[in-house]
Design brief:
The chain is of the alpha+beta class. The protein is built from seven helices and twelve strands. The protein is 27% helix and 26% strand.
Length: 233
């Protein structure tokens, strides 16, 4: 279930194109389970995930002087939040291929903001929030903490190349313990508009992906990335 939150912003155009770059095993797991994996927020490589900027931390620390549990709650809350990251870009990103696919057997899911919002209607157990990440100077700029999702929608400016939209799930109100993350129900046909095969992959790999997708009962448009297409001179 996707929920609106007036404090969380998204691109104005619902047809804004978004991407997820992943390897074949994760892609097949998505199709077979019809569930999207979301990583626990404190398991990301960036240790600042879900934390506050320095000005905000100083304010929280003052509040915590009279209420020590206040600071502990914010620290432990990271263990209860799961995130799925998507990249905003009208076109493929060479950098994203390099960062998120370890070899030439990766692929990319192309979707849109509206498709992401509509893909979670079948998920009734966990509420999903979708928002665009803000990139700020953590030493100078303030992160509001009147909304529990704000710490997960801010990152340091050094990550702004990611141009990230995030699907966020908070399991604080349930008894679920997140280990590496959480799998949520998703409408695959809504989620995926098109599949792009790694630009350095061989033709056999593209044919394999097409065959696997067909055998699993899906009919997505599958194309090879044109980043490595033949030059014209």
């Amino acid at each position: 279930m996707y929920l609106n939150n007036k404090n969380i912003t998204l691109p104005e155009d619902p047809d804004t194109v978004v991407w997820k770059y992943l390897d074949l095993s994760k892609f097949l797991d998505l199709l077979l389970s019809r569930k999207l994996f979301m990583s626990r927020s404190d398991k990301f490589e960036d240790q600042y995930e879900g934390t506050f900027s320095e000005p905000t931390y100083q304010e929280i620390k003052k509040i915590a002087e009279d209420n020590p549990e206040f600071l502990h709650y914010y620290k432990s809350h990271r263990e209860k939040v799961a995130v799925s990251s998507w990249h905003i870009n009208e076109y493929e990103s060479f950098a994203m291929w390099q960062i998120f696919t370890q070899n030439s057997e990766g692929l990319a899911i192309q979707s849109t903001v509206s498709r992401l919002k509509n893909a979670f209607d079948s998920e009734t157990q966990h509420q999903q929030y979708i928002g665009e990440v803000n990139y700020i100077d953590y030493k100078k700029e303030y992160i509001p903490f009147d909304d529990m999702f704000f710490p997960f929608l801010f990152k340091r400016k050094s990550f702004q190349y990611e141009r990230e939209i995030r699907i966020i799930s908070d399991v604080s109100e349930s008894n679920i313990k997140l280990n590496e993350g959480l799998k949520i129900n998703v409408d695959i046909n809504q989620l995926i508009e098109k599949i792009y095969i790694h630009p350095k992959s061989e033709n056999w790999y593209k044919n394999l992906v097409i065959q696997l997708v067909e055998q699993l009962g899906f009919d997505f448009t599958i194309e090879k990335s044109d980043l490595e297409s033949d030059i014209l001179i």
